[in-house]
Amino acid sequence: MGYLKLLEIENFKSYKGKHLIGPFKKFMSIIGPNGSGKSNLMDAICFVLGEKAQNFRVRKLADLIHGASIGKPIGTRCYVKMTYKNDDESETTFTRTVTNNGSELRVDGNTVTTSEYHSYLEQINIFIKAKNFLVYQGAVEQIAMKSPKEITQIFEELSKSGELSTDYNKLKAEMEKLKKDTHFNLQKRRGVAAEKLEVRDEMKEAKRYQTMKDSFDKAQMQLYLIQLFYAEKARDKAKVELQKLNEEIGNFHRTKIDDEEEIEKCEQELRKAVKELRRMENEVEKFERNLITFRPELIESKQELAHVKRKVETTKKIHLTTAKMAKEQEQNLKELEKQQLSLQDQRKKCEEKLKKDSQRHSLHLDHEQIVEYNQLKSVAEKQNCRVTSQIEELQQDREAKKIGIHRAQHEIKTIEDQIKQKESELERHEKSKTMIEESRENQIQMLEEEKKSLVTVEKEILESKDLLEKYSNRLHEVNKEISDAHGDSIETEHTKRRNEAVENLKRLYPDKVHGRLVDICNPTHQKYNLAMTKVLGGNMNAIIVDTDDIAEECIIYLKEQRYFSEKFLPLNSLVINSINEMLREISEPKGVKLLFDVINCFQPSIRKAIQFTTNNAVVCETTEDARHMAYGIAGHRYKSVSLDGTLFQQNGIVSGGSLELRDKAKKWDEQKLRKLREERAELQNKIEKLQQNAKRNIEIEIKQNQIKQIENRIQFTKFDYGKLQNEIIPRLRRELVALRCQLTLIQPRIDIGEKELKEIEEEIEKLEVEKNSISDSIFANFCQKIGIDDIREYENREITFYQEYQRQLKTFEAEIARLQYEIDFLKSDDKRKKEKEEAEKIQKLQEFEGKLEMKVEKQMTELKKMEGELRKAQNNAADQRSTVLKKEVKYDEAKKVVQTIDRNLSSMEKKVKNLEQIEAKKSQKRHSLLHECKIAGIEIPLKSGRLEDVMIMETSDDTDNNDENYDPRDIHQRHIIDNIIIDFEALEDKTKRLKSDAEIEKLIENYFKAVKDAQGNLAKISAPNLRANKRMEEVRSKEDETKEEYENARKKAVKAQTAFEKVKNERYKLFTDFFEPISQQIDEIYKHLSRNESAQAFLGPENQEEPYLDGINYNCVAPGKRFRPMDNLSGGEKTIAALALLFAIHSKNPSPFFILDEMDAALDNTNIQKVVSYICERSKRDMQIIVISLKEECYNKADGLIGIYQKPTNVVTSSGVLTFDLTNFKSNLHDSMAAV
Questions:
Q1: By residue range, what is the domain housing residue 776?
Q2: In a domain, 1186, yes or no
Q3: What is the mean pLDDT of residues 586-595?
Q4: Where does this polypeptide localize (predicted)?
Q5: CB burial class (10 A; 0-12, 13-18, 19+) of residue 25?
Q6: What's 628's DSSP letter?
Q7: The domain that contains 740 carries what CATH number?
């Protein structure tokens, strides 16, 4: 395979002038510092290979000329020429030139078009769109992180299968559309065929329909006649039995009235005793709540006191440590100040001594001698110019060395001071850590104690709740049994919620909501109980309020609180009839009274509601008297009720019996009732005691808050301890180690400096000797005249004194400055101030501790007082419970007399209820059957009346409603139904003589089955369609049309599918021919790159049938590691994986050369060696590789180097190029290694 041989660049970007780069070796490395122009060299290669202008970070090609970026192009053109050596050793040149007017492309010197130029390049496997010859900087790792879909896109571009994607998508959409059209026409054709069969069936069924309908009508009439016959028979029988039973119940009620007066007296006494007991229990509960609330406050105060005491002890320890450190600081400060004063005195004495010595040794010359000295000095300086210059340079070096040594010595002193400071700080933090650790251990111990206490309390409360639930359930059962024995109703959850709602409304609207009607009035005598309950009916539980607005607000509140709906009677909107005074004067029958007059009203303001609900109703002694008042007085009808609860209304409706007014009572003997009372008292005592523990939830919350506070303190302490342990102390230790390391590094510098200083002084001494010999020859006569051995005796005498004077002064000043620095440092860290702050803190804590102790003592006294009050209240409540128990026993004995009568009445009232229900049910059934016959058009033979007059009527099971709740239309309808007489002659005699319900039900069931079968058979046949023949003609016409449409659509779909399959196969072949070799080679390449056979690389499509439609998964298993997703690999592992993919792709679509820009950026030295070894093998075998690298481990293995450097310039960056052949060096290295 050919390769890139030479590259010639002229005025391209940063390359000014002409540069000939090469020859390029099989493995070439481009090196150079950042900003030197390495990337511009890559741009030059891309430029000559036909890359577009926008990829060179310029707006137009003319901006590529050197200097154009700053508006000062160096010329009017630039070019890049590439010399390519072919397989047959011939050479081809590719040249691309840019001028201000455009660009020019040449191949072997001949001008060509862009397409021809690209064609020449593609002949040597260089594709500029796919860039199969180049990997840009930073792109290596990005290749490994590409999504499966992006990897598929790369393969589409390189395999050129992507060029068919437009035709593929277009033909696929067309094929799918035509398939849908074909399917639509097929379904349409099938629908027409089904419609044809349907028309045939309609014609057959029409005939059968009429025959079966006649049979159904006859069976249906027989069924309804049988049901109506037995419904009337059962209704008439129930009416006769009901009248007899009501007369017996009235006799029992009159016997019971006198016995109930004694019960009422005992009940009033019991209510007073229970009310007093509740007051005492509320008082006990109040004391208990106060005690439960107070105890946590006392516990919290004790804990706070214990915490403050521990804090005082900790602060005292800190204060002692701070005082000790302050004392040591003051001693050190006094010692340093003493040393500073001593040095100042020594400096003063030294200055005086030097002045005296200078005056004693000074030598004086006359004017002529000075002039002669100056002339000779000038001559000597000229002759000693060279030597003097060397001496001055050496003296400067010597002074610099001395300054460096002095700085290093001063640095040592500074570091030693810092080490002392850090050691002191470390010691202080170590002590703080110890104290914090002790405090944390105390807090943890306190936390464990509090948690144990909390667990104990929770366990006690949980046990108490379990027992409380158990005892409460049993108490509920006992109360239920006692209530049943008394004949009272059991209060259900529904009733409790409704009562709770009324109490809440009375509390929200005092004096405006009066309560339920049943709670605020009662009959003057117990004998009126049933009569009053019957008349009040649905209004009995109504809530009395003042106005409509109050009623609306109450309704809104009930809805918001999700209570049950209630009936309200607003007093301001009730329309009432005036009281008929004539009813108060009736003497016959005897005992007739206005019901309003026999009701006691506790609140005069609600008398209007009572008047509204009673509505001039009268109460009579017997049922006959009530019937007489209702219907027996000519011209007058009154609403009347008897003492046994039989109600006669003006509209003719009569309702009787008292089962609706009372609940069933169970039989209890006296002994069992007494045991139940005793068990209830025992359960109440246990529940009361257990409720004390159950109310300790506040104590749990307080303990939980205390535990949370301790945990927070532990967390803060842990944070402080952790900060000292993991941050501050390690940091100080690291800083000490670093300072000590600096100390060890500075001394060698001083030794080296002193050695170099000694060498400089020796050199100066040699030069001084040379200089002195010249000066001695010039000043010989002059020295003889003034009587000295040489001129240096005169010069040195003056200079030496001055230098010595300056040296000693600098020494004193340096030492004084060092001492002053240490003094200032110690003064800045005032330990006495910290000691004072800690002392003030101790004083404040001790004052707070005293206040807390007084508070705890006061709370203890208050606790004892509250416990005494609680015991006294509990004793009073226990005495009152005994009194209540005695009253209950007396009340039970009084009620026992009435229980026998109640049991008898309950049994009889149950029978009344059953008979009433039978009568109502059969009447309703007769009405329903007649209405069904009317609706269904069934012709029933009648003796009188008409089915057309039968209407649907609202039904209600509430027989207690007064006549205001009846619709006049319902009364008229009942009258019509009663006047309808059915002719049962059509029924056979044996059908009418059936006795048992089973026989009747069986007969009705047989007829019902016959009707149902006939109806089922009839339902299977739809009504005949008279247009069936005409519809058949229309269906046949549709059939011909749909057949033609289907054939046309099918042919188009087959043609479209053939075209699509052709493009699909072509695209699949292009893609798989390119992909398969790469997927087979990539594992081997990855193993070679990793230098490990355990490494694995997988390249697989998500869609096996059409891989170009979905992603291609690329996964690698690094040597010695488990499988991980690509984004979890390290930077080096990602780079190796990316290179494996790049080399695999390149092996399928190889360009003659492969350029990698800083592909080793994320690699460590080991991975670089592996990659470079692989590159060396490939470059020797089948490809030319050019690598841009900044790492020596990479470029030292190359066959040659191209060095890029930046030339100095003031205008625009200019790059220079150096080429270096490493082949000879590598061969010599191999030879030397072989010799070894």
A1: 382-490+675-787
A2: no
A3: 86
A4: Chromosome; Nucleus
A5: buried
A6: I
A7: 1.10.287
